[in-house]
Every structure is written in structure tokens, then in C-alpha cells.
Amino acid sequence: MTRLPDGQLQVFPIEYNARISSVEYLAICSQCYMQSAIRAPGPDGELNYSRSPDVFYKRYRSRPYAEFPLNARYRDGRFRKTGFIVESFLRSSYFRKGGATCVSCHDHHHDDAGSNLTSMLFRSEPHRMCTQCHAEFNNAANLQQHTRHPVNSEGSEWGLLSYARIMMSQARTHRIDDIPSARMSEQFGPQQSPSACVLCHSDKSMAWLDQQLEAR
Q1: Distance separating alpha carbons of residues 165 and 124, to the nearest angstrom
Q2: Is 62 left (phi over 0), alpha (psi -120 to 50) or beta?
Q3: N or C: which end of the chain has fewer CB within 10 A?
Q4: Residue 18: pLDDT band with limits 50, 70, 90
């Protein structure tokens, strides 16, 4: 984007190319959405946009996490503040090993952006964010076995969408493979190591959670 003479921001469309890697995909999105990025405006005040025909996008350095307040993370090491969505996703095996990117689930430049505030590709069918890769969960028996909840129930959706609302402002963590850990919650306490399961099953103990996870 660049700042116009009247002070308004002009956003340049991102042209995605199937030939670029998942690392490059995420680097493009990270220019705006990475909390720890160090950004510097260009000579004409432009941000996150290269005027050079030889450069597809600009690369920025990142600040060390130690420079951020301690409350940016839980004591178990996971990010707590909503702004660290990209940093959380970078830790996910779906990105590191599976090649998933932001545009696997989001379209920030869609025509319905005004009514689709989370920019979801599958806003009416959120389970498709998982089944587009995990087709085996289109089978009801496999889905129920995986989520340990009846098909089409709220618990089934939570069990499939394994990135729970543990960040500030009820935002979902984007560490997509964040499997609940009873041991971490016992060590640091539920406030400093929240578990996706006990967000709903608040009456259950850590021993119950550990037993349920071991049975999966």
C-alpha cells in the first residue's frame, strides 16, 4: 500500500501466482499482518509495496519476541495477543510441512469483505477449511471418531477446527495443530495454558482431559 497526497491509503491488489511457494505466499501477507515485522516506508512514503519491476514484494526483518511484553505470550509459550496470528501460523505444521497459507482459508480482497469481517472462504461451511485437505473426515464415522462428538454438533465443529479461541478478544489461535495438553494446563494453570477442551467442559478435571486425549 502507499499513502496518497491527501493522506488516504491506497491498497495495491496482490496477484497470486501458483508458482510461488507457501513461504512466499506467507511473506506477502506478513507484510501487513505480522506483528513483529520491522517496516520502513519507501522514498515516496509507500508501505509494503515495491515500485521496482524486478521485485515482486518487499522483505522485512522481524523483531525478536523478547522485545515484546511478557503478556504477549502464555507461560506455556503460545501467543496470547491477537496480533501474533502470523507468528502462530508460522509454528504450525500445516504451514511448515503441509504448505498451507493464509489464502487456504481467507480471502482478504473479496467483494463481500464488508459483510465477511473475518474474510473466510467457507463462511457458511467452516468445516471445509479442514476437509479440503482431510477428505477422510467427510465420512461421518471418521469424523465422529476424530472429534469424539456427534456429527453436526457444536462439539464436532470445535473438535475438527482445532484452533480454539484462546487469544485475546476471543480470537482463534492460528497454531492450527494446537492439540490440547492436560499436562501443560496442570503445570502452568488454565489461565496461562488454556485448553480448547475445557473452554466448553469447564466442569471437568485435567485428569479427565488427559484420559480423553490419550484415548484418541
Answers
A1: 18
A2: beta
A3: C
A4: low
Q: Which amino acid is at 112?
A: D
Residue 193's DSSP bridge partners are none
> Is the pLDDT at 97 greater than 70, yes or no?
yes
* pLDDT grade for 6, boundaries at 50, 70 and 90: very low
Residue length, the chain? 216
Predicted local distance difference test score (pLDDT) of residue 136? 92
**E-only strand ranges, 2-158:** 2-3, 9-10
Domain boundaries, given as residue ranges, for the chain: 1-110, 179-216
**What are the CA-CA distances from residue 210 to residues 142, 154, 184, 196, 201 (Å)?**
22, 21, 10, 13, 13
Give the whole-angstrom CA distance, residue 216 versus residue 213: 5
Specify whether the CB–CB gap between 54 and 60 falls below 8 A: no
pLDDT digit string (tens) for 29-73? Answer: 888 888 998 887 777 777 766 677 777 667 778 899 989 988 889
